[in-house]
């Protein structure tokens, strides 16, 4: 059984590459950070609890990735450049089995951290029911952060990547759906387990987007948050929603438009921009090799509605609420 201090020395102290702006990292009572001159600090925190946000038997490499990824996704949604992270871990034990688990967790965490030059600069380690809290810190030029408020009537609404993949993976995991091929199943599962924070997109949108949010709770719920903060409404075209091949097949089989609209965990960016920014946005999509799709328009009427392919309309905006019903795998 290792002590808290053994764990810190072994698994955290030199886990990630050092950055020049970290004056003092892990080992003292506080970390000391030199924020780049003239920048604002952006801070985000998310907790993943075993049995609520992940099944206890999840691959710890994926879990380490996801715990950091969901926080980096928040920084992306603000247009912030990631720099540092802290990690608070509650572990049931520190025996050999949990140490192996920790090695895997940190492998997933640190691989993603190194992709974005994020340094782990501190945290806390305690014993108890398994849970993981990560706080990510980044910076953004003053006045350029992308906020939920700011959407304007007549703005086009855009989304990156594809919607509903993680939700369909969850349905598959829970035995409610079977993808037609093993390859499709693997693609979906990877979208659930290893979300890609859209950091480069967030930074590229700084002086382009009027408002932005990352899709963690589902398109309807997150669009509702954006619209509420902006005091506007939205009209979405279901036929324009970007979906992967497996989700397209699912929609053909079931006509279940709730999936791409209400499933969470995709961690794509949802943003609005002036009509005149259309070509600039397509250039960004091309440069980043990331699909960006226009899915509708911001309206003055504060309701959210979606036009279905058959021409009928339905309301949008109901999403996941942690306290409303129990669910797994939502952030
Ligand atoms: P204190 O008791 O003063 O809060 P700790 O003994 O908890 O200090 O932590 C010692 C050092 O190890 C601190 O720099 C802390 O940030 C770091 N640390 C502890 N747990 C973790 C962790 N899970 N990940 C990263 N750093 C950690
Ligand atoms: Mg402590």
Class from secondary-structure proportions? alpha+beta
Order of helices and strands: HEEEHEHEEEHHHEHEHHEHEEE
Q: Name the assembly state.
A: single chain
Low-confidence stretches: 319-331
- Our count of helices gives 10
Q: Whole-Å distance between the termini? A: 32 Å
Radius of gyration: 20 Å
Structural features, described:
This protein is α+β, with helices and mostly antiparallel strands. About 35% of the residues lie in helices and about 25% in strands. The strands form three sheets. It has a seven-stranded mixed β-sheet with strand order 8-10-7-11-9-12-13, with helices on both faces. The protein is globular. It starts with a helix and ends in a 16-residue tail after the last strand. Adenosine-5'-diphosphate (ADP) binds next to helix 1, strand 4 and strand 5.
Secondary structure elements and pairings:
Blueprint: H1 4-12, E1 22-24, E2 32-33, E3 40-49, H2 60-78, E4 81-91, H3 96-115, E5 119-127, E6 131-140, E7 156-160, H4 165-173, H5 182-193, H6 199-204, E8 211-214, H7 219-230, E9 233-237, H8 245-254, H9 258-262, E10 269-273, H10 278-288, E11 292-299, E12 304-307, E13 313-315
Parallel strand pairs: 4-5, 9-12
Antiparallel strand pairs: 1-2, 3-6, 4-6, 7-10, 7-11, 8-10, 9-11, 12-13
Helix pairs in contact: 2-3, 4-5
Bound molecules: adenosine-5'-diphosphate and magnesium ion.
């Amino acid at each position: 059984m290792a002590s808290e201090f053994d764990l810190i020395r072994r698994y955290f102290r030199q886990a990630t590459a050092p950055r020049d702006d970290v004056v003092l990292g892990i080992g003292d009572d506080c970390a000391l950070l030199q924020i780049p001159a003239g920048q604002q600090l952006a801070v985000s925190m998310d907790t993943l609890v075993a049995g609520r946000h992940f099944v206890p038997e999840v691959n710890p490499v994926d879990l380490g990735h996801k715990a950091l990824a969901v926080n980096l996704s928040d920084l992306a949604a603000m247009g912030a450049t990631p720099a540092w992270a802290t990690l608070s871990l509650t572990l049931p034990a520190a025996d050999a089995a949990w140490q192996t688990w920790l090695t895997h967790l940190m492998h997933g965490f640190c691989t993603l951290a190194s992709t974005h030059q994020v340094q782990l600069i501190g945290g806390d380690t305690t014993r108890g029911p398994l849970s993981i809290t990560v706080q990510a810190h980044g910076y953004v030029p003053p006045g350029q952060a992308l906020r939920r408020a700011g959407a304007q009537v007549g703005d086009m609404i855009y989304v990156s990547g594809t919607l509903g993949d993680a939700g369909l993976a969850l349905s598959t995991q829970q035995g409610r759906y079977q993808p037609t091929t093993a390859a499709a199943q693997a693609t979906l599962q990877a979208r659930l387990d290893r979300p890609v924070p859209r950091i480069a997109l967030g930074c590229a949108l700084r002086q382009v987007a009027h408002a932005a949010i990352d899709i963690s709770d589902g398109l309807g719920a997150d669009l509702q948050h954006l619209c509420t903060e902006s005091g506007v409404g939205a009209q979405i075209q279901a036929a324009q929603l970007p979906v992967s091949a497996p989700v397209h097949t699912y929609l053909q089989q079931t006509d279940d438009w709730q999936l791409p609209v209400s499933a969470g965990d995709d961690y794509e960016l949802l943003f609005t921009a002036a009509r005149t920014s259309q070509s600039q946005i397509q250039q960004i999509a091309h440069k980043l090799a990331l699909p960006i799709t226009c899915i509708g328009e911001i309206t003055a009427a504060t309701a959210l509605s979606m036009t279905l392919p058959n021409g009928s309309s339905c309301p949008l905006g109901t999403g996941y609420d942690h306290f409303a019903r129990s669910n797994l795998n939502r952030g």
